């Protein structure tokens, strides 16, 4: 288990939908350990496998001292309540933009051993679960912003020292309608 480098905005792996996990083997458990260790080393609230360059549907979370992981998550929303607040991403360092998400979420999936689990999230945990599940679909929180906020975010990103102009990023429209659903730190 080791801290791994995090892929940054502009890396195509962040725009590639991840594959469902089929084998709940030692390799998966090593991946979960790498995700937890890297997430905690960076002080993040969550980390998805594509951010380490691995195209599998698994993410870890660390919200209000609740640390865990979920494999092959499927989200549902128990109500219509929304939240709005600053959201960031370890793959887009230093950029925080108010992003609308659902206040409550239920994630059904599996643990690293293949046992079914259910994760019920509210507030920041709900934001985290939506943000990380988006990563598994190749979606970034920028995609959830309205046009003005996205323009502001892109301006900040272009000015960021980590930004590589040689790898132009792709912003896509949210398939779910803007600003409803996504994570924070
Ligand atoms: Zn992220």
UniProtKB/TrEMBL annotation:
Similarity comment: family membership: Belongs to the polypeptide deformylase family.
UniProt entry keywords in alphabetical sequence: Hydrolase, Iron, Metal-binding, Protein biosynthesis
Cofactor: Fe(2+)
Database matches in NCBIfam families: pept_deformyl, PRK00150.1-3
UniProt keyword Translocase present: no
Protein name: Peptide deformylase
Annotated catalytic residues: 132
Gene behind this protein: def
């Amino acid at each position: 288990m080791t801290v791994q480098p995090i892929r940054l905005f502009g890396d195509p792996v962040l725009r590639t939908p991840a594959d469902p996990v089929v084998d709940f083997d030692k390799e998966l458990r090593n991946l979960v350990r790498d995700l937890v260790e890297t997430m905690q080393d960076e002080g993040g609230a969550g980390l998805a496998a594509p951010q380490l360059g691995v195209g599998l549907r698994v993410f870890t979370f660390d919200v209000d001292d609740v640390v865990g992981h979920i494999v092959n998550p499927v989200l549902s929303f128990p109500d219509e309540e929304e939240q709005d607040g600053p959201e960031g991403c370890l793959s887009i360092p230093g950029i925080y933009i108010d992003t609308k998400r659902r206040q409550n979420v239920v994630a059904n999936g599996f643990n690293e051993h293949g046992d079914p689990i259910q994760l019920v999230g509210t507030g920041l945990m709900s934001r985290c679960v939506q943000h990380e599940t988006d990563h598994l679909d190749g979606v970034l929180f920028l995609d959830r912003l309205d046009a003005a906020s996205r323009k502001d975010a892109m301006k900040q990103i272009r000015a960021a020292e980590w930004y590589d102009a040689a790898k132009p990023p792709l912003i896509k429209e949210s398939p779910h309608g803007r600003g409803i659903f996504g994570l924070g730190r």
